[in-house]
Amino acid sequence: MKNAAIALSLVAAVFASAAASAQESVEYSGYTGFVSTKTRAEVKAELRLAQQRGEIAVGEEYPQLKEEVAPAKTRAEVKAELAAYRKTHPEVADDITTL
């Protein structure tokens, strides 16, 4: 029993050292040539403005939802425009017969 415990601890030590050495060998190889076109102060000012507008959440708050905009035209107006377009463009006159 004592030999099994020693063997188990040796196996655990080998696995632990293998995991540690695998983590040490990883090097960052990402793109490092980024050059910003804005100063840190400009970026911070943009962030504050976006937070004030409600475009970015602050803390645990949700961003504010924008108000819905009503369509510029009614369904009847769009259907009338489509009918007029089909009269002058026969190639699309038969693509959809009902709306």
C-alpha end-to-end distance: 83 Å
Total helical segments: 3
The largest sheet is:
none
- Total count of strands: 0
Poorly predicted sequence stretches spanning 5 or more consecutive residues: none
> Mean pLDDT across all residues, rounded?
77
What is the beta-strand fraction? under 5%
Structural class: mainly alpha
Element string (H = helix, E = strand) = HHH
Shape: elongated
Task: Describe, in plain words, how this protein is organized in 3D.
The chain has three helices and no strands. With 99 residues, it is mostly helical. 52% of the residues lie in helices and 0% in strands.
Notable traits:
elongated, 99 residues, mainly alpha, 52% helix
Question: Could you give a short description of this structure?
Answer:
By secondary structure, the chain is mainly alpha-helical. The protein has three helices and no strands.
Topology:
Blueprint: H1 2-24, H2 40-53, H3 75-88
